Structures
1.
Amino acid sequence: KGGLESERQQYIIHGGKTPNNELSDKMYVMSVVCKNNKKVTFRCTEKDLVGDVPEARYGHSIDVVYSRGKSMGVVFGGRSYIPSAQRTTEKWNTVADCLPHVFLVDFEFGCSTSYILPELQDGLSFHVSIARNDTIYILGGHSLANNIRPANLYRIRVDLPLGSPAVNCTVLPGGISVSSAILTQTNNDEFVIVGGYQLENQKRMVCNIISFEDNKIEIREMETPDWTPDIKHSKIWFGSNMGNGTVFLGIPG
């Protein structure tokens, strides 16, 4: 975080899959630099990491937590290619769930440390993650090994004292089964989950409100939107959060 107003907003970019089936393990920090009212420029710097560097992946989450005046990036989940020793000609582009490790990334010093938490047994991808202060909530996701979308709800808390960080995980009840959903924030203590899939070829048409009160999380269904016929009949949909409770949805033409 910079001292200037224009440098306070930063974006972390990590991983991803290209059309050529290449995976990236690079990590970038992008900041908005406003020169004047008419022109906005971006500054993008690659972060070289040392330690337990997360392998190249896609379908993962990366969030930032804040504790005791410090911040740390948290990488979890995703998919990657099977290890090179197991790759044959037939299996060259075969992907598998990444190990369910939690990575803490210090963006200031470029250090990365992985944590093995007993509550996280299975690799997950395309889950929903919500970061609030020193805590991240992991919802849903898809397990490639079992081909299921378990109704997960994990709470991962990160404490950043002067010494080594402490990371702990709690399994919470009341999770939902969904993958590839879009999360948008509607106010300080409320989020909405839109879209995604409940089965491989079945879109999830129900939306959920996630509300926080006194560090308690509640997930409930909300009134279903009046989906247009082309959205109802499409097999595939995708989109992103546009901020302030607005979601952009697309379907193949």
2.
Amino acid sequence: PEVGTTIRNKLVRLMTHVDMGVKQTAAEFLFVLCKESVDNLLKYTGYGNAAGLLVARGLLAGGRGETQYSEDEDSDTDEYKSAKPFINPITGHVEEPMPNPIEEMTEEQKEYEAEKLANMFDKLSRPMGVRPDGTLAPLEETLIGRPEENSDTDSD
């Protein structure tokens, strides 16, 4: 959305300007042009560009505040309607569809990848600890060789 020479592209570029006043003014102006509709703002700017304004207004959950705009909601152009399935909602950029990597795999390759994925989930579910040097390791390794802190000394 920030790439191009249209007014919208230039305003979206200003939403990431270093000057906070310029950034906020551009975001507020675009928000008003979108009839203060979070969905419309996200459609035209992308979530990443609009996040700051939405946080400042408490609108991250979407919706619309108390507004006095017309009820006409259909602002989709033919160009937008044709590109909608390819728009990344976070960046607002039109992306080419990615090929499905599984289509070209043999059954053995699919099985191997599934086992690899299961092993990665298994590693993620194991409890971890921190070694004295600050690196992560399985919890068992971090507990071995560590002196017990309150072993035989009771001060009470």
3.
Amino acid sequence: QLSCLLRMVTLHGIPEDLDSYPKDLLLFLSPSDYSATGSCSQYFNNIGEANLDVLPRESPQRKQLLLEALACLKIPGTQINEENAEILGRLLCDLAGEYIRSSGGILLKDLSQCESFLPDQEEAIRDVISSGNTTFGPPAAWSAFTLRELAGLIPVFDHNILQQIPK
């Protein structure tokens, strides 16, 4: 339905008020198409607010969106800073484990909003948390507030992490 709606909206070219349309619609538009009305970082900022689950998790379209976002933001290597994490929004949920490890604890709070994780991502999250080298500190220093902040990650925690968290 969304791709059909996009065809109708763009029948006579890309409308100037594209940002006023639902963000989910942009999932079916390429960044180069969007460039007529804004920058690629603006496009991916909007995509980050869209419901990515409209596209299947491992779909070529979704993978391509992430690759284009990383290229647009000129992210060298696998480290994501806070500013880029904010722009990527829900696209962070598709980052490979190497990005999660390299970025350290910066991504944890954002990742806790994700619906599910691939095994590679789960392992990376556990590695980052176990290192204790995050803004939340080691699990032994966590409070109820910390657990609320990271609630979406709790299913990923293994026995070693859970055992360290104070009762």
4.
Amino acid sequence: SSSLTEVKEFVKRLRRQTDLCNMAKTVRALLNNNSTVTVLRSGLHAVFNEQSLDVTKNLFRDKFRNPKKRQKNIQFKCLKNLISSLTSSTDIRDLLSCFSSDLQTFVIKPSRNKEAFKKQASDFMLKWNLLLSTVGKILTINRTDSFG
């Protein structure tokens, strides 16, 4: 029983690693194409300039009605930082470094202890996934050229 559990966990880790490798290959190919990066950046900038993200922004704000506990849209800051560093000459390692730096600043350093870190990290991931899925939907529906 315990061996089966260990094997299942190993398979999950292997799948994640494979998914990350495939994603890295795709991003590298995308970053090498100047016109694709230009179209993607313009689409992403348009998404932020439109009212499309207002629903998502309101969801983020509504969770923290207490001003002391309200987060300052960390996920939007991280995404905007990634977009600002996105150019056709950008290496994927530079993007990951940018994101890692933001995570260090906004999630890891502010955590006072292990439990606070777990809570903050899970909250960040939940909202990050929500933001990226919303941006993906908007790009797919309104900016199909940004998706190649």
